[in-house]
Amino acid sequence: MVGLDINHSLLDYARRRSPRLTLVQADVRNLPYVAEAFDGLWAAASLIHLPKISVHASFRRLAKLTKPGGLFAATLIHGRHSNTLRNGWIPGRFISRWHKQELATALGRAGWQIIELKIVFNQERKGRWLNLLVRRPILKTELRDTVHIDY
Predict the structure, then answer these.
(1) Which residues pair with 24 in a beta bridge?
(2) DSSP state of 29
(3) Burial status of residue 46 (CB atoms within 10 A of its CB: 0-12, 13-18, 19 or more)
(4) Considering its fold, how many domains does the chain have in total?
(5) Does 59 fall in a domain?
(6) Residue 84 falls within a domain, yes or no?
(7) In whole angstroms, what is the distance from residue 4 CA to residue 28 CA?
(8) Residue 98 burial (10 A CB sphere; 0-12, 13-18, 19+)
(9) CATH value at residue 91
(10) Which pTM value belongs to this model?
């Protein structure tokens, strides 16, 4: 398991809470890992700070980092207008918002197979969020390397 964040202060906080966890300072847009390095990925409200074009590219890169059959879970903000917040939750931060079908299309184009994509209301962060769970499909060419035993 690896914890990753671009923010050094958040990594320091994580290090105090979980001293044995491997932590890496990196940007999700440029991750220092090779293809198929992970069985699963989780992005909890981290992609919301990227413009949609960067999220589209990140979905593709994350699919390449995940082994065939691997999972990716994430939370994004539901809505129409992406913008920089002027007040409220985190003033001055950019927030991208997604509609369910728009997100489903982006995930499909990036090579993910949707297991679950639902709108939820979050009391902690306020508002409507999209929770997603997707799988990187196993391609037929990848199946030929598996062993089948018939009895």
Answers:
(1) 4
(2) T
(3) middle
(4) 2
(5) yes
(6) yes
(7) 8
(8) buried
(9) 3.40.50.150
(10) 0.84
How open is the CA angle 81-47-92, to the nearest 5 degrees? 60
Instruction: Catalogue the E-assigned strands of 46-143.
Output: 66-78, 83-84, 94-95, 97-98, 113-121, 128-135
Residue 148 pLDDT more than 60?
A: no
Residue 140, token pair as written in the block:
């037929």
Query: Each residue of 87-123: pLDDT tens digit?
Result: 876 778 888 999 999 999 999 999 999 999 999 997 6
| 71/9 same-domain check | no
- Are residues 1 and 44 located together in one domain of the fold? no
CB–CB of 3/16 below 8 Å?
A: no
The residue whose two tokens read 């809470």 is 17
Interatomic CA distance for residues 3 and 42, integer angstroms: 10
C-alpha to C-alpha distance for 52 and 36, rounded to whole angstroms: 24
Range(s) of the domain holding residue 113: 36-143
Does any domain span residue 148? no
Does residue 51 sit in helix, strand or coil? coil
The alpha carbon of residue 86 and the mean position of all alpha carbons in its chain are separated, in whole angstroms, by: 25
